[in-house]
Design brief:
alpha/beta; eight-stranded parallel beta sheet; binds zinc ion; 17 helices
């Protein structure tokens, strides 16, 4: 194993921006399709794996829809979540805050069905893989009509200790944060933690909206903040955490392949950044790979270590739990590098 790869693989990590559906590999979806008698647009597992490989944004949406079509029963989510714990444990990601595409779920299942399936997946995952995952269902902004039902599901799950917060994903352009102001207000009132994707495909305006209209506690992606000097200063002054996913941005052509990722400029501007894998299976990446990518673009080990520590510090864990993880992380560093 390459030395740098093994360092980042073995390093205990924390991840704050990853989607369960996008973290599920081609084979898992293929098995679900067989089990549920869903016809995929392919003739074999190999063809499905080739189809699953990222090529461009339109194709990504096609894959996402075909993959989601295999999730026909609530217990399929139990299976997906168990597989997710396995993946995170394999990557040495000790603590994760993960998104679930709730707009799809509420169309198909009752709250009880969803919550029971997820709870079961969490129980199996924790027991088998000994890593911790907390869940943040998100509203797909291009299905704004689902916002009320998603909020209702999230509040019920929050009361049962299954969810910790509410997120906002999906197509950013054409669906501004302002559409969700009331929903976010209610979520906050109930005590939910709140996050939103913003400044990924849309510009600084979308980030301002997420901050000022939704009162989001963290920004998902946020790379387009660099278009607006005033916004960069605001984010730096207030130390608003930003969940950066470099591989995803390259895949979706938001950053040109020959360019270094703008996270360099973000960190140099004093922004509080973390590194994430977003949809690792669909973008053929992993959190380890994301650290390696940044190392190859000139980030020092100390800088990358700090980004990893930032994730624990800006997570929604209690102060005691943060302290527990920071201790484990620092012990690893002391034993291996000092
Ligand atoms: Zn995302």
């Amino acid at each position: 194993m390459n030395k740098l790869y093994s360092i980042f693989k073995n390093m205990p990590k924390c991840e704050l921006h990853v989607h369960i559906e996008g973290a599920t590999d081609a084979e898992t979806f293929y098995k679900l399709a067989e089990k549920n008698n869903v016809t995929l647009p392919v003739n074999s597992l190999q063809e499905w794996k080739d189809f699953f490989d990222f090529s461009n944004f339109d194709h990504f949406i096609e894959v996402y829809i075909a993959a989601a079509s295999t999730l026909l029963k609530p217990e399929d989510y139990t299976y997906l979540i168990e597989a997710f714990y396995k993946h995170q444990a394999n990557e040495n990601i000790l603590y994760t805050e993960a998104f679930l595409s709730a707009s799809f779920m509420v169309e198909r299942f009752s709250n009880d069905e969803i919550l029971n399936a997820i709870k079961k997946g969490m129980e199996i995952g924790e027991k088998k893989y000994q890593v911790e995952v907390q869940f943040i269902p998100d509203i797909a902004r291009n299905f704004p009509e689902t916002k009320g039902r998603v909020l209702n599901l999230v509040i019920e799950g929050f009361k049962k200790d299954i969810f910790i917060g509410l997120g906002l994903g999906g197509l950013e352009n054409g669906f501004p944060p302002e559409l969700f102001t009331e929903t976010y207000k209610k979520a906050k009132k109930e005590g939910l933690r709140i996050v939103a994707h913003a400044g990924e495909t849309d510009g600084a305006k979308s980030i301002w909206g997420a901050l000022l209209k939704l009162n989001t506690e963290r920004i998902g992606h946020g790379i387009r903040c660099l278009d607006d000097e005033k916004l960069v200063k605001y984010l730096a002054d207030k130390q608003i955490p930003i969940e950066v996913s470099p591989g995803s941005n390259y895949c979706l052509s938001l950053v040109e392949p020959e360019e270094n990722h703008p996270i360099r400029q973000m960190v140099d501007s004093g922004l509080l950044c973390t590194v994430n894998s977003d949809d690792p299976a669909m973008f053929s990446t992993s959190l380890t790979n994301e650290y390696l990518r940044l190392a190859s673009q000139g980030f020092s080990f100390e800088e990358l270590w700090q980004l990893n520590i930032n994730a624990i510090k800006t997570s929604f864990l209690s102060p005691e739990a943060k302290h527990k993880y920071l201790k484990i992380f620092e012990e690893f560093k002391a034993n291996n590098f000092e």
